[in-house]
Fold this protein.
Amino acid sequence: MTVDDTGSGAGAHHAPDGDPDRTAGSAGDASAARGERAEPRRTDAPGRGGAQGPDPVEDPLALRLEQLILGAERRYTPFQAARSAGVSMELASRFWRAMGFPDIGQAKALTEADVLALRRLAGLVEAGLLSEAMAVQVARSTGQTTARLAEWQIDSFLEGLTEPPEPGMTRTEVTYPLIELLLPELEEFLVFVWRRQLAAATGRVVQAADDEEMVDRRLAVGFADLVGFTRLTRRMEEEELGELVEAFETTAADLVAAHGGRLIKTLGDEVLYAADDAGVAAEIALRLIETMANDETMPELRVGIAFGTVTTRMGDVFGTTVNLASRLTSIAPKDAVLVDTAFAEEIVRTGDAPVSEAEAAEAAAAAEKEGEEPPTYRFALQPMWQRPVRGLGVVQPWLLTRRADGV
């Protein structure tokens, strides 16, 4: 969308009542009035989400797919859409760009759905439920998340589900019926997963001790990194590399979710996760190491974990704790987990690890003498040499391992 609220450009002469179908100079509208099918028109607008330059002529199949997915035809220029939604052109442009869509001049490329989306966001601001800045953040976070999801779905579905039913058919020709079948099911599923995630996130906020903890929270943050990935990229074919990365991300996502953590993001050869409980973060780290070590197709893995105050924003995490976890990962040995002192103290406090092996032995001997069960620990900690870490000074790493005997 453009910030040109003067209405200059193609389709800029508006009827007094603002009806886009009465816009002067539109050959397509004239054809529609005569009951004829309008031919694809030259336009300065590519597909609504396209980041590349304009196509000389819109592809008829692309237009059909857009109408199928959006459930509405193109009717509005950006200026008309903003006016119909009752918002300023400037605010409409901010929302549009925040959702990740390009400026399209004054081409007639928007639909009734676009008007409704603008109206809803602006309505939340007018009602005082969201500030204007927060509404823009909502648009941006939703746009970024769904853009990646849409790209992944199209890539995956067209690669795995579109074997041409007849010789000579292209994947493009199969796209329309495939999307027609999948769209309603995927839409329902997307809403369900979003509600589930929203419920979980709301529950975590409600359990926060105070308002400050809702934004700045104490979390365990872990980075898991494939060792020697850069070398792999030089000797593996692109398809093989893609399969390896997908297998790694899938395994990591499954393990993080299964054990109660949250996958923050994936970076190809690295995943970032967080957990409210240090013991959960430790279990995830060791499971990742063990799982990857048992897969001959996977390179070695190393994990770094830190515990402390973390700032959360738009689904991501920031702060010194995150930086420290990243640095610990970079110095961790292969197939090993390094943690910081705060993390070590936390799992000692919760009883998941002893202060030292000597203390564990003393506690076991005392319990045996009294005829009681000795304390059990899931993890063991071994102090490593202190070393300087760029930007964070001298840190004390601890090697985290699993106690095989559980005592």
